[in-house]
Write a structure and sequence with these properties.
heterodimer, A: 814 residues, OB fold (Dihydrolipoamide Acetyltransferase, E2P), Phenylalanyl-tRNA Synthetase, Chain B, domain 3, five-stranded antiparallel beta sheet, B: 354 residues, alpha+beta, BirA Bifunctional Protein, domain 2, seven-stranded mixed beta sheet, three-stranded antiparallel beta sheet, 19% strand, elongated
Chain lengths: 814, 354
């Protein structure tokens, strides 16, 4: 909403400069987003002049040399060269004298034009930003266009025309359509300054006098078939209308408010809307067929040619206004081309109606058609506003268009609901705000906002004005009015009592942080990917038709097909980020993501969501070094990383070979905690890797919720043995197909309690161990809690280990 | 004999002092104090002397031996130290070579680190961190948050729908209701999480992150909201920050406010030292960081009283505040990140900066 300050000050003029007004409005809830300036930067050196002579320039066909009386008795008339074809002796004109600064910032100079000195410039409307449309070229002749024709030369131009004003750009919250109006903002400004030394009264409402009359209008009927969508419809008929340009003051105000002047009738509808907040629509009454308007729901597929020249296709929830020839406008949004006011219009039907806000919002969104009118209607206007607009418009139609108003006003709709009365407890105000507001001050604030008040035992009884009916319905709404005007800056900064509050992270939140930190600590960078995914992701991951990851949540109205499902895995965003980084920054990528993944529910409404942690390693695991080559990403690099992660949480975890469609079939495993499957680990299937332009890449993902459930919240202390351990090595050869995990598991089971730890410190296949066999070197650490072990002590355990390995084809080496 | 001792001692002392290496010193020790050396021989022969001489000679020889031993030890320490120094000097490395093997450095994403920073501030103030579903019912996302059935935010242009009754949550606020349904008052929670709206440009992404706060007790005022957010602002943006509350509108708070923090870049003046307009706050002196307010009493009326949250939420008995802020916005302000989209490009050059 653009509000020219000159216009605002006509209704409320506090003793504040623009910044002061900005501050008061912003701090009471009408945020000033920006302050613009319209017209000339400063009114200095712009004056009224009278053209005494206009002679042909001796050296230029198209120029005239004018003698212009600028009211300057000492120096006499100024000589001004003017190129406008319409300049003539006897005209009263607007003149910029040397030193004047034009709207574009340039400073006017005394000039030599082909040998003749020009001491200023006779101005056109666009040079003053009164009207920038091309049809107004030629100088501005004030006596043609102003009612007050006797203007003395030398009068400051700003005294007769609004040539300079600051303009406030306001953010009006959706609950306050009454502030999409200059008079509504003036009321706010009044309330925002009431009781201060700068405060100013609010001028009477511009609709207080209505030259029109109630009753039927001869020859005009209106039927509303859908009162749910049109709570009130009013219309007046104007005759003897002369379509002409609007007077300068009106053009200047509309231009300053960001509206383009068109002609007097259209300008009046715009002006009244900007002043009262209520949109109006003017029909050419002679182009409305049949003298009967019907407001109805449109038919599905019905088409209307709107006055912007476009054909709009409607549906059954949209509202049209019909005449005998069919739809003539789309209610609340735009008039039809057929009944538009034209230069030859002499009879005007002025429609002012109230429409259902949400319905207008829907229609406007569906047709992608937004206008100043629709943006007001969609917030829900009050039926009383119709007659506000009719009253102001009627006065202006009579004044500016030479029109007469036909007797009567069409008015369809039930009487507005009675005003609501709400008790406001004084104590409650303090309880909510944390600071008291005196009852007198509460009254002052509410009265300034047009609420009537009456004192009661414990506070006030408050009558809500019609324009605030939708927004203020409860005591708390009144408290807000008091608080915002009284000044939130008055509030002290206190802290809540926080009874029983204990700021703690849950176990799973702590596990998540620690898991992320573990990966960061191992040199991985965290990415944040999109929750949205492309359905093609599922194919690119080679998922078969019935795969569980295809159980996706689909978005009905995605921004694009590529963002139309919710990701079932972190792999997609990890792979996307890896590809981007490989192409931008080279082949070494170690990243992880911690985020939600989604599946369509097997039952219930909501998604199955869990928080997953996924890591991706591609290329070198660390920067190159002058001392030895760093490792490369592969299955075991990922598994070591996984171990660094899971071992932090004291999990009894393992991996088991397990294929995934997107993983290398020989380098893929399920990650288990006990029997529970936490996730998977593996190298990407080469076809998947190449689909993302990646070389060998290893990944894992785990379900952090399951991980947290498997991780003990508290770890119990284990006694530290004070005796030294005994270390023995064992080299065995086994059939190559026996998994290391099985070997270790058998060793552990056979050895008994004394075996503290086993590690695999060498793996060898080759000629020395024979075809189909593999040699493993195991480091065994034995310890007893009460004595230092000797080789004899552990010999039985060692024998049991050897026997257990023998059962699966193991032979002791060397 | 005593002269001989003195002579030996003098001779040894001068040679020890002149010894140039530990090795030479060891040779001298053997020569003067070794088993076959003259001085120990003399000492062993003392017993054979007549008593009058015995003590004199014995004492002199002993003194000489002890003196030499002390001198040898001192000289050995001196020479050893010097030799060690020389060896270590030869053993030097080029300390300006990079460490090896390299320890790769990982980073949390700036959204995560900012989220944790915010969580920690409010944990310190006694708030508990709660999270909720991102795929949410229309009931929790709109109805229970006092949005009228025709509220524009429900439009398909403003909300992603999964079905007629299910949306991608447009804010973290649904957890206000879920938390009150599950827990009795008093309640102090923050809710970080991912939210969705169908916008995409330099200042909007279709997904972003919010952190919601809710405090409900018997007497929580708007002044308490101000104090809580002042604490937050100072923790995030510095001790000199101030906050201001501007009246605003949200369906689920009443009174509603927008909260501005004084600009940390220009100190709230709107202008830099050189007189130019502050690029961070665009000359306003204030940065809009979040929306807040007292919880609308309608919300309490929508909360059924159950075993889980008994005695429930009676609008005449409880009151509180709620706020919600964008985590990306805080991160961008704090780190001077110019474009929201950078946060989702995941370029390692960006990730490694924070």
């Amino acid at each position: 909403m653009l509000v020219p300050l000159n216009w605002l000050r006509e209704y409320c003029n506090p003793d504040l400069d623009t910044r002061g007004i900005e501050e008061r409005l912003t701090m009471t809830g009408t945020k000033v987003e920006a302050i613009h300036h319209h017209g000339v930067p400063s009114a200095d050196r712009f004056v009224v002049g009278r053209v005494l002579e206009a002679e042909q320039h001796p050296g230029a066909d198209r120029l005239k040399v004018c003698k212009v009386d600028l009211g300057d008795d000492r120096d006499g008339p100024a000589s001004i060269v003017c190129g406008a074809p319409n300049v003539a002796a006897g005209q009263t004109v607007a003149v910029a004298r040397p030193g004047a600064v034009m709207p574009d910032g340039s400073e006017l100079q005394r000039l030599e034009l082909r040998g003749v000195t020009s001491e200023g410039m006779i101005l056109a409307e666009n040079e003053l930003e009164i009207d920038s449309s091309p049809s107004t070229h030629g100088i501005l002749v004030l006596d043609d266009r102003m009612l007050d024709a006797e203007l003395a030369p030398g009068t400051p131009l700003a005294d007769v025309l609004e040539i300079a004003t600051d303009v406030l750009e306001l953010e009006v919250t959706p609950n306050r359509p009454d502030c999409l109006a200059v008079y509504g903002v003036a009321r706010e400004l009044h309330a925002a300054t009431v009781g201060t030394s700068a405060g100013a009264e609010l001028a009477g409402a511009p609709w207080e006098e209505d030259p029109g009359s109630p009753g039927p209008v001869a020859g005009l009927e209106v039927t509303v078939e859908c009162p749910d969508l049109c709570p009130r419809f009013t219309a007046r008929l104007f005759e003897n209308v002369t379509i002409a340009p609007s007077p300068l003051w009106l053009k200047a105000r509309l231009s300053a408010a960001g509206q383009r002047p068109i002609n007097n009738v259209v300008d009046i509808t715009n002006y009244v809307m900007l002043l009262t907040g209520q949109p109006l629509h003017a029909f050419d009454a002679d182009r409305v067929a049949g003298g009967h308007l019907t407001v109805r729901r449109a038919r599905d597929g019905e088409q209307v040619l709107t006055l912007d020249g476009q054909t709009r296709t409607l549906d059954g929830e949209m509202v049209v206004i019909d005449d005998a020839d069919g739809p003539t406008s789309i209610a609340g949004l735009m008039g039809g081309a057929r009944s538009e006011v034209a230069p030859d219009t002499t009879r005007v039907l002025l429609e002012v109606a109230t429409w259902n806000g949400p319905n207008i919002h829907r229609t406007s969104a569906a047709l992608a058609l937004r206008s100043e009118a629709s943006s007001r209607f969609e917030k829900g206007l009050q039926p009383e506003q119709c007659m506000h607009a009719q009253a102001v418009a009627t006065r202006l139609m009579l004044e500016l268009c030479g029109a007469t108003v036909a007797p009567g006003t069409i008015d369809v709709g039930p009487p507005p609901p009675p005003p609501q009365v709400i008790p406001l407890r004084e104590q409650r105000v303090e309880a909510i705000l944390g600071v008291p507001v005196a009852r007198e001050r509460q009254e002052q604030i509410l009265n300034a906002l047009d609420f009537a008040t009456q004192r009661t035992d414990d506070g006030l009884e408050v009558v809500v004005p019609a324009l605030r009916r939708a927004d203020v319905t409860r005591e708390i709404d009144l408290i807000e009015e008091v608080a915002r005007i009284d000044g939130l800056e008055r509030l002290p900064a206190t802290l809540p009592a926080r009874r029983g509050a204990a700021g703690l992270l849950t176990h799973s939140q702590r596990v998540r942080r620690e898991a992320e930190d573990a990966l960061v600590g191992r040199g991985l960078n965290e990415i944040v990917g999109w929750s949205f995914a492309d359905p093609e992701l599922l194919d690119r991951l080679r998922l078969p038709a019935e795969h569980d990851m295809r159980r996706v949540i689909a978005v009905e109205n995605p921004l694009s097909e590529g963002q139309s499902i919710m990701r079932p895995t972190l792999l997609g965003s990890l792979l996307d980020a890896a590809r981007e980084n490989v192409s931008r920054n080279g082949p070494d990528v170690s990243i992880f993501e911690s985020g939600t993944v989604y599946r369509a529910p097997r039952e219930g409404l909501l998604a199955e969501e869990h928080h997953a942690l996924g890591a991706l390693l591609s290329g070198r695991l660390a920067p190159r070094s002058w001392r030895g080559a760093p490792g490369e990403a592969d299955f075991f690099a990922a598994k070591a990383l996984l171990a660094a992660l899971l071992d932090r949480f004291h999990l009894d975890w393992s991996v088991q070979p397990g294929k995934r469609p997107f993983l290398h079939p020989g380098r893929a495993a399920a990650v288990l905690a006990g029997e529970e499957q936490l996730g998977f680990i593996g190298e990407l299937h080469p076809l998947v890797a190449s689909a993302w332009d990646l070389e060998r890449t290893a990944v894992f993902t785990v379900d952090l919720g399951k991980l947290a459930a498997a991780a003990p919240a508290v770890v119990s202390f284990s006694e530290l043995a004070s005796v030294p351990s005994l270390r023995q090595d064992l080299a065995v050869t086994l059939p190559a197909g026996v998994a290391a995990g099985e070997i270790l598991q058998r060793v552990g089971a056979a050895a008994g309690e004394m075996l503290e730890h086993v590690e695999v410190f060498d793996v060898y296949t080759g000629e020395q161990v024979g075809e189909g066999r593999r040699s493993l070197a195991l480091g065994l650490t034995f310890r007893a809690h009460d004595r230092t072990l000797t080789d004899e002590d552990v010999a039985p355990a060692r024998e049991r280990i050897i026997a257990a390995l023998d059962e699966i084809g193991g032979e002791l080496r060397g | 004999m005593i002269e001989r001792i003195e002579q030996l001692r003098a001779e040894a002392e001068s040679e020890i002092s002149a010894a140039g290496s530990s090795e030479a010193l060891e040779q001298l020790r053997l020569r003067y104090l070794g088993r076959k050396a003259e001085l120990p021989q003399l000492l062993r022969g003392v017993a054979a002397l007549e008593p009058a001489q015995r003590s004199q000679v014995g004492q002199a020889a002993n003194e000489a031996r002890q003196g030499l031993e002390t001198l040898l030890a001192a000289r050995a320490a001196e020479l050893g130290g010097r030799e060690l120094e020389a060896r270590l000097a030869d053993d030097r490395v080029d300390v300006t070579l990079p460490g090896a093997p390299p320890q790769p450095l990982g980073r949390l994403h700036v959204i995560s680190s900012t989220r944790r920073e915010l969580e920690d501030i409010f944990l310190g103030l006694g708030f508990t961190v709660m999270e909720g579903p991102e795929v949410e019912t229309v009931h929790y996302n709109f109805d229970a948050l006092n949005h009228s059935p025709t509220h524009p935010a429900r439009a398909r242009s403003d909300t992603f729908y999964v079905s007629a009754d299910v949306v991608l949550r447009t804010h973290t606020s649904p957890m206000q209701v879920r938390a009150m349904e599950a827990h009795p008052p008093p309640l102090y929670i923050v809710v970080p999480g991912r939210v969705y709206r169908p916008d995409s440009d330099a200042t909007h992404t279709p997904q972003f992150h919010q952190i919601e706060g809710l405090a409900v007790d018997e007497d929580i005022t708007l002044a308490d909201l101000k104090g809580t957010l002042l604490t937050f602002a100072r923790a995030v943006f510095g001790d000199d920050r101030d906050v201001r509350l501007r009246p605003h509108f949200f369906p689920f708070t009443e009174p509603s406010v927008e909260v501005d923090v004084s600009c940390f870049h220009c100190g709230g003046t709107g202008f830099l030292r050189d007189g130019s307009r502050c690029p961070v706050c665009k000359g306003e002196g204030w940065l809009e960081v979040l929306g807040a307010g007292e919880v609308d009493p309608n919300l309490y009326s929508f909360i059924p009283t159950t075993e889980a949250n008994a005695p429930g939420y009676d609008p005449e008995k409880v009151q509180g505040f709620a706020w919600g802020m964008g985590i990306e916005r805080i991160a961008m302000l704090k780190h001077g990140i110019p474009d929201l989209r950078l946060l989702y490009e995941n370029d390692l050059r960006f990730l490694e900066q924070f």
